Amino acid sequence: MDCLFCKIVAGEIPSRKVYEDDVVLAFYDIEPKAPVHVLIIPKQHLAGVRDVTPSNSDVVAHVFEVIPTIARELGVTDYRIVTNNGVDAGQTVHHLHFHLLAGRVLGEMG
Ligand code: AMP
Ligand code: ZN
């Protein structure tokens, strides 16, 4: 499948990894919008929140289970988790991902 983040999962495109287990991969965003900007993705290809169903929501639960561990490893206590679903919401990579933003006072959501 022609998916950038599937290629990162497969190791075909390099990334600066922060965390990895069987289900989840986390790596630094290539264009950081905050001093700490990490993307947390399920290894399984889901196009976005729109693809979450009762049969795969355990993957999403696992993402949120590991976020506190990832934040600890990054040395941040306060952070924002953002996911864009669909082009109008700003989604540019159509593989479900959660932005972890931290390291500065974050402004209001727009
Ligand atoms: P979104 O706009 O919510 O779909 O987020 C996609 C994010 O992926 C953006 O913040 C990009 O900077 C980031 N991105 C694009 N290509 C790469 C890459 N090769 N490695 C790491 N992050 C990337
Ligand atoms: Zn993918």
Radius of gyration (Å) = 13 Å
Record field, number of beta strands: 5
Largest sheet: 5 strands, antiparallel
Largest sheet: spatial strand order: 1-2-3-5-4
Average of the residue pLDDT scores:
97
Low-confidence segments, ≥5 residues, pLDDT <50? none
Shape: globular
Kindly estimate the percentage of residues that lie in beta strands according to DSSP: 15-25%
Helices and strands, in N-to-C order? HEEEHEE
SS class: alpha+beta
Q: Which compounds are bound in this model?
A: adenosine monophosphate, zinc ion
How far from one another are the termini? 32 Å
Share of residues in helices: 10-25%
Characterize this entry briefly.
With 110 residues, the chain is α+β, with helices and mostly antiparallel strands.
Which features would summarize this protein structure in a list?
110 residues, alpha+beta, five-stranded antiparallel β-sheet, 5 strands, 23% helix, 22% strand, globular, binds adenosine monophosphate, binds zinc ion
Give a written overview of the molecule.
This protein is an alpha+beta fold. The chain is 23% helix and 22% strand. It is built from 2 helices and 5 strands. It has helices at 4-10, 57-74; strands at 17-20, 24-28, 36-42, 80-82, 98-102. A 5-stranded antiparallel sheet has the order 1-2-3-5-4, with helices on one face. Strand 1 and strand 2 (24-28) form a beta hairpin. The protein is globular and about 35 Å long. The N and C termini lie far apart (32 Å). Bound molecules: adenosine monophosphate and zinc ion. Residues 3, 5-6, 45, 95 line the site of zinc ion. Residues 4, 13, 15, 29-31, 39, 84, 90-93 line the site of adenosine monophosphate (AMP).
